[in-house]
Amino acid sequence: MIVPGASGFFLSLGIMLKVILLIDCASEFDRRLLRGMMRYSKENGPWMFYRMPSDFSWVRDKEKWILEWARTWKADAIIGRWDEVKVNLLSRLNIPIVLQNNKTRSDVYSNLTGDYDGTGRLAARYFKKKLFIDYAFFGVRNIIWSEERCGGFQDEVSKMGGKFYSYKVGPSDSYDRDDVLEWLRSLPKPVALFCCDDAHALVITEICRMAGIRIPEDVSLLGVDNDELLCGISDPPISSIKLDVEQGGYMTCKQLHEMVRRNEHTPFNVVVNPIGVVERESTKHYDISDPYVEKLVRYIDDNYNSDISMESLFGMVPLSRRCMEMRFKKAMGITIYQYIISDRIEYFSHLLLTTDRPVSDIAYEAGFRDCINISRVFRKYKGCSPMEYRSNNCVF
């Protein structure tokens, strides 16, 4: 007789792995997660997936339904979102279980989680380049990914000496938009506003549009997930932090595969890392009082990976080179050359984490025409070599 999990024992004989997915397909995050899982399955399968919606509102006894189906189908593993941690599915099924838990990380199950703190810090550093003084966060109470993104953002803002404001709603959609509007109106302007995800950033754009609050002039708005549908339906389109979600799905399946092969149930964590900011119109505002400095900054941000000559830059403003260099250093805290290099380093870092191309190739694409000293320059900005940065932050 074949019992739940037994197909894992026979993987070497070609019997496919069966995985129950408690995952919706409504969000871009879930779809990217599934793409990563499918990619691993095609490379190492075939696997068989059975998708159940994570919202079981139409089911009276959720845990009983999952248990019965897992036993009937002889499932080898479960992946998905499940907040009923009081029900120990693991002890009842004796198969690996990986959870996306909204409220806390599990000590019993494996976790598909994220560097939420680091995502918040990345948002703060992004806004810092635009010289904001006032920073705000809009998120959800008692949800781990929102709370930790807020914590990282707030801590980084504090280190930068900025002023911080926040507004958190309940986990449902029943919050009062008039209260959110009152909070938005009370914020100093301009303000750098970081939202816990793109869905909540879209709420902000809707409220601001109806109330006449200008984005990005009054509120520079940044979300998370880079959901192109949500970001694009907004007016203006929303800038967002892209996450390495597909790689998270891939690594989740890889870890599960190893557990089933070894017949072990030791919990593990798969961490989805932030990749970088995908900039759209909602953040194309700089809190820079000097119009000539702002003009150069905008040009550099749009062209840093091309051959920028100092002569062409200084030809854009009616000032002497020395005068412009002094004004830029006073406004930005670094020289024009350092600003160009920092832009290139950030894009170079992004390519290191999102491609497996040779370092020399992506260094050239990022704007570094002389690749001989790239490791030294990168270490100065990131504290490690490009290959160390890639191996520490991303697994292909």
In whole angstroms, the N-to-C terminal distance is 38 Å
Low-confidence stretches: 1-14
Strand order in the largest sheet = 2-1-3-4-5-11
- Work out the number of β strands: 12
Strand content: 15-25%
* SS element count, helices: 17
Q: Give the H and E element order.
A: HEHEHEHEEHEHEHEHEHEHEEHHHHHHH
Helix content: 40-55%
Major sheet description: 6 strands, parallel
Mean pLDDT: 86
Class from helix and strand fractions: alpha/beta
Rg value = 24 Å
Q: What coarse outline follows from CA principal-axis ratios? A: globular
Q: Mind explaining what this structure looks like?
A:
The chain is an alpha/beta fold and 396 residues long. It is built from 17 helices and 12 strands. The strands form 2 sheets. It has a 6-stranded parallel sheet with strand order 2-1-3-4-5-11, covered by helices on one side. It has a 6-stranded mixed sheet with strand order 7-6-8-9-10-12, with helices on both faces. Strand 8, helix 8 and strand 9 (219-224) form a beta-alpha-beta unit. Helix 2 (28-44) packs across helix 10, helix 5 runs parallel beside helix 6 and helix 7 (177-186) crosses helix 8. The radius of gyration is 24 Å and the shape is globular. The chain starts with 5 loop residues before the first helix and ends with a helix. The model is unreliable at 1-14 (pLDDT under 50).
